[in-house]
Amino acid sequence: MPQMNNEIKNEIKKRRTFAIISHPDAGKTTLTEKFLLYGGAINSAGSVKGKATSKHAVSDWMEIEKERGISVTSSVLQFNYDGYCINILDTPGHQDFSEDTYRTLMAADSAVMVIDASKGVEAQTRKLFKVCTMRHIPIFTFINKMDREAMDTFELLDDIEQELGIATCPVNWPIGSGKNFKGVYDRAEKEVELFSDTKKGTTQGEVRKVKFNDPEIAWLIEDSQRVQLEEEMELQDGAGAEFDQELVSRGELSPVFFGSALTNFGVETFLQHFLKMTSPPLPRIADKGEIDPMEEPDFSAFVFKIQGNMNKAHRDRIAFMRICSGEFEAGMEVYHMQGGRKVRLSQPQQMMASERKMIDKAYGGDIIGVFDPGIFSIGDTLTTSAERYAYEGIPTFAPEHFARVRQVDTMKRKQFIKGISQIAQEGAIQIFQEYNTGMEEIIVGVVGVLQFDVLKYRLENEYNVEIRMDSLPYEFIRWIENEDIDMAKLAGTSDMKKVKDLRGRPLLLFVNEWSIRMTQERNEGLALSEFGR
Ligand code: G4P
Predict the structure, then answer these.
(1) At 163, phi and psi to the nearest 5?
(2) What is the pLDDT of residues 142-171, one digit of tens each?
(3) Nearest atom in ligand 1 to 22's CA
(4) Domains of the chain, first to last
(5) Which of 6, 41, 161, 184 has the fewest CB within 10 Å, making it most exposed?
(6) What does the radius of gyration of the chain's CA atoms come to, in whole angstroms?
(7) What is the ipTM of this complex?
């Protein structure tokens, strides 16, 4: 067995790869930008994305556009800080794209959740945050905008615990908010990090810390606020969960930090703690067992995201992959497990602040995008290992909304099929075909209805095809797991529909759960599954 090269091992150990998730406007972009500022990747705040265009978001659709704008231009950002090499994965901020978020989380080793202190966990992001807990990776909470009037701290923590079902452990604690925001109290160090204005955060700002028992504190913080802090700490120490790295690593306890990304306050403190508490690239499950990046010398990676038409003029398609082990070199030949043949990975790129750049090398933990000539699917494994293996797949979420879709202009059938198939391959929607009708009727299934808007918009704008959508009453989908099923003989309820997916697997659409039960009763031995693996 080839030996693991120490240089590669050290590179991998330096990696920290996390996803950042938030409700739109909570401050994800601002926080990311400040991370880059501390990492020296940008010189001044304001260069990550042009706010001018995103500011005029008027409708839900514009909101998607904005989201798409973010994920297209800055899907992954890499920067160095304090000896670490950090990869940040951006996620869409709307619950209708929670499947996309789940796939991105598959590529991350931890997640940072940004919450607006005046709003707590917001309705639209509930589902999204919940998806985070499904992955059992460490979740870190940054409660942002403390320079504005905030909700009560206990209420905020309670909100997170109730919504996500995980315990919280505040690492620091805010002293006041809005005009009365004085800073945060570091519970372990028993000191106050004083809030300072950093000219809207264009400079890194000086961090000033004073021990809480230092007499100077009386000059810096009013009596009433000091008393309140003492009372709150007593309550929290008595009732709150204690910090436990083991629980954090299992995703059962979320360390919470308070700050204000806009003014740079608490950002570096958060980054420093976070980097110590999160983990380097973790072992991943493959069909032959666990693959540990510290032991596996060969390159291996899996595709978690496919983004088509990033550049309309070139119709290029980029497959984003998470490197799980070894070293990547530009132009290297790897074995594509699902395709069953060797491929050369060309035009590898990474994001650096607002630019895409070509790269020569990357290591386990990194995320790279490679040119995809249309051969990759989400979940595919690539490796240089002689002993071939495949990483466990990324499950597709069961769609909850269905529509029959057809092109308005019958002459555009070819473009329509091409466009809808490509968009489905990217995982932006799922498509199904009715039995015995050929490709005439296409049924689209989505997890969130905004995905329908994206489909319509993209078909019109990228493929020049206008479509008509008729919504269908189905709400439940079940894949048939029996290998030898005779679909013609399968007896279900009259309102059930028999369809097959992109890979030809048979499945059933139901309008209600009663119908599922009836079908199961009428067909002995029928094995139905909610997931299309
Ligand atoms: P997002 O990526 O999560 O959608 O949020 P983004 O960072 O774009 O921030 C949304 C708005 O909130 C921005 O204001 C941003 O300046 C502001 N913001 C972010 N962090 C803080 C904070 O700590 N305190 C305060 N007071 N505001 C914060 P905007 O008006 O939409 O844009 P801009 O014109 O200020 O750039």
Answers:
(1) -70, -40
(2) 999 999 999 999 999 999 999 888 999 999
(3) 3
(4) 19-70+111-277 (3.40.50.300), 284-383 (2.40.30.10), 401-529 (3.30.70.3280)
(5) 6
(6) 25
(7) 0.97
